[in-house]
Amino acid sequence: MSPHDTVLEPTGDLLALLRALCDLPSVSGSEAAIADAVEAALAPYPHLEVLRDGDAVVARTSLGRAARVIVAGHLDTVPIAGNVPTTLVGTGDDAQVWGRGTVDMKGGVAIQVALAAALTAPTRDVTWVFYDNEEVDAALSGLGRIVRNHPDWLVADFAVLGEPTNAGLEGGCNGTLRVEVRVPGVAAHSARSWMGTNAVHGAGEVLRRLTAYAATDVEVEGLVYREGMNAVAIRGGVAGNVIPDECVVTVNYRFAPSRSVDEAIAHVRELFDGFEVTVTDASGGARPGLDAPAAADFAAAVLTFTGGAPAPKFGWTDVARFAELGIPAVNFGPGDPLLAHKDDEHCAVRQLHLCHDALRSWLTT
Amino acid sequence: MSPHDTVLEPTGDLLALLRALCDLPSVSGSEAAIADAVEAALAPYPHLEVLRDGDAVVARTSLGRAARVIVAGHLDTVPIAGNVPTTLVGTGDDAQVWGRGTVDMKGGVAIQVALAAALTAPTRDVTWVFYDNEEVDAALSGLGRIVRNHPDWLVADFAVLGEPTNAGLEGGCNGTLRVEVRVPGVAAHSARSWMGTNAVHGAGEVLRRLTAYAATDVEVEGLVYREGMNAVAIRGGVAGNVIPDECVVTVNYRFAPSRSVDEAIAHVRELFDGFEVTVTDASGGARPGLDAPAAADFAAAVLTFTGGAPAPKFGWTDVARFAELGIPAVNFGPGDPLLAHKDDEHCAVRQLHLCHDALRSWLTT
């Protein structure tokens, strides 16, 4: 059976559903098969209106409830690393499912597919959102595309993003900024290096400032956000016998949600004063917003169930995009976020069921 | 007329010969047409035995003279930069010929072709050597290939290499060593950078040592060789949201001919103590050897003619390969070596004639 023939069984075993979703490789940019499978799985349910935009699928109820919530998750993964198809280690509640996507974030997606089908009469109207291209440049995001093409699909009072939180609740997220710091030089034959100016040597000062930089912890609404300032790439040099005339250091600044993007840019420009700094990518963070009534209500409901406590989300997630739309949003999903993108990515089956049951309970009471 | 139909006129105008050689693009690896043209130009002369190996051509006299000299030059150039065909600026002795190869080193090659044809009875037997692939990895060198395939073609008492020296005489050459200095790290998501170890930040120490390094001037047999220690490339980083787990700095050490390759390697390993150092390319230098009788004789003859003085050669040239074969060798050719490989490469026509006349005088008296 080719992956394109995969049939998802929304009302069957949740672990089997998760594994079927993981075993459909869906690296960013190649989500057609998994989007087809999700659309086909939900289309038969009369309580759902199923919509499609590119490789994003939206399924929503229209029961006239007083409130509407979005439950959203991305369909794509980072590149597979020989860890597809999934394997199962252990049995019962101690079992772990290993493989790409088991943490980031097919667990959340499996719970969405199962509950979208099962909950014919949720206590809140629900818009289930499945989208493509989350793991790549913000400009490619499927959720961003829906915002542009169909803003009416994303009207809600509250949003839950099924990103991995170890079944706890993670509020808000750090912002992320990427800049290129450019160090100029003058090319020359390396046999007569004194005729040139070595740009790679010049980049030593950029690395010195990065190494000396002390990242800060910032408390926002009771949660402590840990920042980071890191070179994520460096490149320079044209040939083995030429003094490099340019060296470019790509720096990624993860900043607390109390700072605006503009403040973050100013901070980075100040740090690299004297060098040319070009912003290549910027996404603001999101304040935790756990004092919003809808969020407090959700936190109380699910955390009683899972026993977790609210914590800050360090990684940037699409809660920031919902925050921009004025929709309070939290992260809540199975899997240890530290295992995301790792070759040994794996998820406790217990967390999968816990999150499923907590979300089901909240949407039915 | 396609370049493959180019006919060289060895006994015609020297400048026209130089321009014809330059206008035949012959970037390293694509020397077939120019080798064909040189072979065809010299084959008709009964005083020459013309030999071929790949895209290298050797033409030699066998007059039973007491001494044999090699006059050698490479046929290839670095990639052209819109500077082919050549242009002529100015007139007469003030003229300059502009274009790829005018300096490095079609001037020397033109002189060889002209004199090989013209000198039917030189005072020393001459082996004229034209070879391919000098501007690329040492392993590809056409001269090195002749050494392996036909060592008997390269028997001589002295060698002149027509590399550009501004019509002066440059003795010996610096050695060159390339190493990769590897800085390890531990990958992590850049949103949780404290889980990893940033290899690019770690490379700051490598750049600090390079910047602090004081290159020395080394006197060898009366000539002062200026050394250089430079990063020629740096690379690190796998994705915009990952802490780099490796950074590699490529370092090029140009060292005086008084040091052996092993001493150069030991010096670089000591400089980067604590880091993994991998040697990727190493060629020893050559002592000037101007005290050898053949070299002293040549220097006296040509420098009286051109008015130049012996100087050190900073760049690595094939005089080092001749030195390895036990053949004293010097660089002597038209063109400013600082213009080699440059987009504005150009040569004074006066120097072309000076070098031609000096070499002719030496080989006929």
From TrEMBL, chains A, B:
Q: What is its EC number?
A: 3.5.1.18
Q: Which UniProt keywords apply?
A: Amino-acid biosynthesis, Cobalt, Diaminopimelate biosynthesis, Hydrolase, Lysine biosynthesis, Metal-binding, Zinc
Family matches, as Gene3D superfamilies: 3.30.70.360, Zn peptidases
UniProt keyword Metal-binding, yes or no: yes
Residues covered by the Peptidase M20 dimerisation domain = 175-273
Cofactor(s) of this protein: Zn(2+); Co(2+)
Q: Which Pfam families match?
A: M20_dimer, Peptidase_M20
Keyword rRNA-binding, does the record have it? no
Q: What is this protein called?
A: Succinyl-diaminopimelate desuccinylase
What organism is the protein native to? Pengzhenrongella sicca
